[in-house]
Amino acid sequence: MSTELDSRSFLRWCWRQLTSMRIALILLLLLAIAAIPGSLFPQRSQNPVQVRQYFIDNPQVAIWLDRFSMFDVFSSPWFSAIYLLLFISLIGCVLPRSIEHLKAIGAKPPLTPKYLDRMESYTEFKKVDLDIVERYLRKKHFRIRRDENSISAEKGYARESGNLLFHLSLVLILVAVGIGSLLGSRGDAIVNIGDRFINTPTSYDILGFGKYQSEDSLPPFSITIKDFKAKYDPVSNAALDYELTVSTANPVGSTETTRVIKVNQPLTYGSTKIYLQANGYAPIVVVKDKTGKVVFDGPTTFLPQDANLSSIGAIKVPDMQPQIGFVASFLPTADRDPIRGGFSSYPEVLDPRLLLAVWKGDLGLNRGIPQSVYRIDTSKMERIGLKALVLNESYDFGEGSITFTGWTSWVNLQIVNDPGKGFALIGAILAILGLLISLFTRQRRIWVKQGRKTQIAGLAKNGIPGLEDEIKELVKEMSNER
Amino acid sequence: MSDNSAAVLSNNLIYSAILFYALAFLSHAIEVAWSVKTPAKSVKKTKLDFSRTERVGRLATAFMVIGFLLLLPGVIFRGVSANRVPWGNMYEFSITGALAFSGAYLFALKKYKLRWLGLPAALSILLTLGTAVTLLYRPSAPLMPALKSPWLVIHVSAAIISGGVFLLANCIAGAYLFLDRYEQKGVRPVWAEKLPTLEALDNLSYRLVALVFPLWTFSVIAGAIWAEAAWGRYWGWDPKETWAFITWVAYAAYLHARVTVGWRGRKAAWLCLLAGSTFLFNYIYINVWGTGRHTYSGL
């Protein structure tokens, strides 16, 4: 019996500690500190490539950092522990206060204290009729408790209302983030100009679902890429504008409508949005074998490497004997200098060049290990040629020939479904509203007591100034009344 | 007017403004130095007598006004030259920030008798403009596509104003700690006689933070709304976002410590400085050395 009591009182003690302001303050500061490594180390959620590079550069350190979730700080157990404790502490503090506050709104202000002359901003005054004081205070929207010969008035309950609204809105934002990550989906698809994208899991290059989101929940729209225009500044080469024209249907097969997608202007289907996130070039080549039979004809997506869109990629031709692979660079506007060799000097295609290294041997496609489409594992291959091709030029590499026939642009569509973000926005707006109300409302009490003289005193919460002036004004008003 | 000539005009105006801020700085220095009155017999009775230097003090303010009047069109023409609001890169944040800061100083000068702040104010404007034209300068250029949004005006102006006020609160908290050390030992140094009481400094820095905290919250939220439209997510723990969050949490801690726990004076001032330095770190370190999506156009 006594141990049960002990453990219960221990739990109660823990709860009191957790909901105390001191612990909340420590948790807040801990949260700020815990977020720091997330900005110092590359994070898997944003930049998996950099994380991989970190592992290559400092393997020993990286393993240890990884054990402490330094590459996934914001989903790590310790970060989650801090913010969950903080929110439990917040709820534990705010809920009882909300109940108390609701009661206080219905109740009258507390009794007038016995000795007013000990209070702040105490003033004495010649006898005034309390009814006049009451009328004045009511006009000023004070809540009033009128006793026989005293008035207790309070104003500024909105301060606490705003305060509670702010903290409860933070809970709403946290819930919204949770909804988004459990019930959302996010994926990327690279689509060439002229091609059609149909929103099914197989059309994506990368696709992630929330824990409670099933794969067949994608809205069944289709997007056909009609045109993509990129404008660049001729002096600085910087991108000025991207404009993607698509025709789209929801569901697939219904009438298509033409829409424009820009960087700040996604296409919206319910809670799903389609963003234009990146673009690049896909050179088109025709590869023939020794007999002159076409074994490859089409565009290959290349990855841009710099602001002038010099791009790298790999053209794999597994249908030849032996297998052939081209490790290639595409330069939209080719230029040369003695140090860098060939490079691109402008992001638009003005003078394109396709630089090739031809490899012969085993591409390793049948080994069952997933491979990057932008790279070739040349460990079991032999290099048989090097060539720079201008448009419509052919190169005979002995086992066959390759012709650089053209290029097309591709765009990276990011398709995001976040059903929580509406709630997050509402939470954010309410939070600001609550914050403004609570920071700019003054809560204060004024007491007036009738004795031989009329006594006036007041008390402002948190010592916020302005009360003295208010009392002075009240006194002035009363002297005018007489 | 062609874009290029607007950019050149802007540069000339900003250089002229720097000249006048330098003159204001010199005049304020003279004002303080010449007002020291030491009786021949006792150094301890040194007093500041600003009536002796009233004229040069006024002159300093006049130079500040001229500097402001030159800087204002300088910033405007920078915007005109690129056909957008003048805050697309760090050079432009700096000149706009300096303009806002000197505007705020001149605005509050009369009401709060702020001339005691003139010397450090002129110095910080000079330093800001100086680094801007020497280290941060970039030719005027149009915006990259991701920045083409009305949110640029809303998000960045809110961030600049909050940053300016946070830094002002930081200066005052710093002044508090500095003077507090003197008062612990006995009396204030002579030159600090004109400064407000410790309690007033303490309250002032708190009030500035409380005033601007909602604006900072708004700036972060506006950024999130913009990120949702431009980058496909409203929050992604980009380094800039992470540090904006850290700043927000640190100031939230400061406000709780002050309002709910009742921290005053030294402890509160240190916490204020800590929170402010997270903002500075975000502005300087993340912009210059950081990675992530907030790095634009060189700087």
Average pLDDT rating of chain B: 85
How many helical stretches of chain B? 8
Strand order of the largest sheet of chain B: 1-2
What is the overall pLDDT average of chain A?
A: 89
What are the salient characteristics of this protein?
heterodimer, A: 482 residues, alpha+beta, TATA-Binding Protein, 5 domains, seven-stranded antiparallel β-sheet, five-stranded antiparallel β-sheet, 9 helices, 23 strands, B: 299 residues, mainly alpha, two-stranded antiparallel sheet, 8 helices, 1% strand, flat
How is this structure best described in words?
The complex is a heterodimer of chains A (482) and B (299). Chain A is α+β, with helices and mostly antiparallel strands. Chain A folds into five domains: 2-93; 108-155 and 442-481, TATA-Binding Protein; 157-179 and 420-438; 181-279 and 414-419, no CATH class; 280-408, no CATH class. Chain A has helices at 2-18, 21-40, 48-57, 59-67, 77-106, 130-139, 158-183, 421-440, 467-481; strands at 123-125, 143-147, 150-155, 185-192, 196-198, 206-209, 222-232, 239-249, 257-261, 267-269, 272-289, 294-299, 303-304, 311-317, 323-331, 334-337, 341-344, 353-361, 381-389, 394-396, 400-417, 444-450, 454-460. In chain A, the strands form five sheets. In chain A, strands 4, 6, 10, 11, 12, 20 and 21 form a seven-stranded antiparallel β-sheet that branches. In chain A, strand 16 and strand 17 form a beta hairpin. In chain A, helix 5 packs antiparallel against helix 7. The radius of gyration of chain A is 35 Å and the shape is elongated. Chain B is an all-alpha fold and 299 residues long. Chain B has a domain at 143-299. In chain B, helix 5 crosses helix 8 and helix 6 runs antiparallel to helix 7 (239-261). Chain B is flat. Chains A and B meet through helix 2, strand 8, strand 11 and helix 8 of A and helix 6 and helix 7 of B.
